[in-house]
Amino acid sequence: MTDDLEETGGVREVKSAARTVELLEYLAARRNRPARLRELSDALGVPRSSLHALLRTLVKHGWVRADSSGSLYGIGIRALLAGTSYLDTDPYLALIVPFLEELREKVDETFHFGRLDGPDVVYLATRESSQYLRPYSRVGRRLPAYSTALGKSLLAERSPAQLDAHLPKTMEALTRHTITSRAALEAELDRTRKRGYAIDEQENSLGLRCYAVALHYADPPVDAISVSIPLARLSTEGELEVVAIMLQLRDRITRVVNPLGGLSG
Fold this sequence. Notes:
Number of strands: 11
CATH architecture of the largest domain: 2-Layer Sandwich
Distance between the termini: 32 Å
Structural class: alpha+beta
Shape: globular
Number of helices: 9
Strand order of the largest sheet: 8-7-6-11-10-9
CATH topology of the largest domain: Beta-Lactamase
Strand content: 15-25%
């Protein structure tokens, strides 16, 4: 067992456990694109023989699924059970969802609740507009924090030194509007602090503008709520209305949730 341990940041990491987590996260990130053994081996830098044995074990226990030929691998149903357990037991989510529903009733647009996780924002809850039904759920999905209103509202709560833990080495463009330089992002975060809310100007999806506010029941905040509005039906009056409603609700949420104590992030 000693050979399977490695010092990482002062923590004795179990290599086999770390390899398993990396494999599951890689498969999850591919969504509906199964991968072959060779591709997985190249991506993770793991010998095929070792990886094949690990895959067979995970398939047996339901964490990975294989096609009928046994050559294509994807994330398994056990991962879904673990994910839903996280949602079911999160004390903040249960409190935030009624506020999302209230927002959606006041303004018939799509609202999200997300949490900062490393360089990404993970979507924990969504309430869709009746005017547009997304063909898939965003719950459980992750997007780069630098390219989302949710993420930028949370990055703006951090110092330049703290940003390093939440930005990838390369900020790739998701659309032609995505901010891809550190200097431009820091300037946008400064504007976010002055406004009190973040804006995603078609940086993830063309034709959509998003607004987000950080929720201050943790220090620094790790959760935020956002609204997505198609530009085709967004007016100046509508923008002012939805931002004002979100800022008011942010203050209410902070007062209600604060007694639970903070999250680390």
